[in-house]
Amino acid sequence: MRGSVAYANQRIDYSARHSSRKTLAITVHPDGGVEIVAPAGIGQQVIEKRLIRRASWVLQQRRYFEQFLPRTPARRYVGGETHLYLGKQYRLKIERATEDCVRLKGGYFLISVAGVPSPDRVSGLLASWYRERADRKLKERFEAITARFGRIVGRRPDLSIRPMKRRWGSHSAKGRITLNRDLVRAPLPCVDYVIVHELVHRRHPHHGRAFFDLLAQMMPDWEKRKSALERLLA
């Protein structure tokens, strides 16, 4: 479902979907998009009435994200281009070889390509390398943090790691936490922030005062980490 509302001489476009959750949630993404998840049976009129009530906050969030523009240009996967891993920049160094291989050495991604080192081939090899590292590194951080805060958040939830277009993480109605595989490009303190943020949702589904009070208790510098994440991976 898509629609728009008018507020303070501005138009707020949104996308909405229904789920098994009991309450309505509004999310503003870094690209300015507004996503609404509503309980089953909630009609569009009610959704838009709630959005208008939160419109001032929505516009504030959009202004916050605008400070990080312009965003990183599309990657070309050519020699000399820089790519992030755990918050550090590494330059691509591409060579032809007898077998495919991706290694980190010094300040470089050394990418050996069996055959013609086209941007598509380099992109595919680097994506596979990131996927393997993300699945391992994000799981390690998740296990360490859930062990640390188990007394507060209870039983360790199930974890899923996959590509996500507009979120760094999510917490489902069934208690599963999903992390964006791209987080492996961010510094570990930023990764930890996303994990803690989603863990807090186990106690407080919404971004109300109780949510932020617990988040600050578990991670007092969460705002600094959040800002660093958005600046680096914009």
Automatic annotation (TrEMBL):
<dbReference type="InterPro" id="IPR053136">
    <property type="entry name" value="UTP_pyrophosphatase-like"/>
</dbReference>
<protein>
    <recommendedName>
        <fullName>YgjP-like metallopeptidase domain-containing protein</fullName>
    </recommendedName>
</protein>
<dbReference type="Pfam" id="PF01863">
    <property type="entry name" value="YgjP-like"/>
</dbReference>
<feature type="domain" description="YgjP-like metallopeptidase">
    <location>
        <begin position="22"/>
        <end position="231"/>
    </location>
</feature>
<dbReference type="InterPro" id="IPR002725">
    <property type="entry name" value="YgjP-like_metallopeptidase"/>
</dbReference>
